[in-house]
Write a structure and sequence with these properties.
187 residues, alpha/beta, Rossmann fold, six-stranded parallel beta sheet, 6 helices
Amino acid sequence: MSKRLVVAITGASGALYAQRFLMQAVRHYDELYLMLSSNAAAVLKTELNRELDAYLCDPKITLCEKRNFFTPPASGSFRHDGMVIVPCSMGTAGRIANGISDDLTTRAADVCLKEGRKLILVPREMPWNLIHLRNMTQLAEAGATILPASPAFYHEPKTIEDLVDTVVARILQNLGIEQTLVGEWQK
């Protein structure tokens, strides 16, 4: 079976995390199923000054319509290696935590939880209020990995991309991918 990954980009700030993650994911996966929230394209344009089309030029990436529940990631019978939501808005996390599958992203995440597949949420927003904390607790209890976009500094980053890549490296590691973006601590 080919290596497949489901990726969602929501409208939370942090488009650079999505961009850098997609650059790595196409190196490690045969097929990527990409979905975007209503605001994701606008955030990509605002923060990176790039149109969505710039991310779809790789033939490994299939863009899924956000309301189409007849796409592979909406079904438990579609086998894949997991799902990453980067960045993950608090609204998306809240809907997933409470079983509200109102678009393909939340449906695909729900499928991951019910099928016991890897689901990684990369929230970027802060601070978190009590509702956010409870939603994250519910998600973790349901089997999701909560991987906040909190960059590390121990490798002496020189650029913003270096900082972002510390988070991308941790996402890859949590997917079981050997990565070379950021070395191990004290190596």
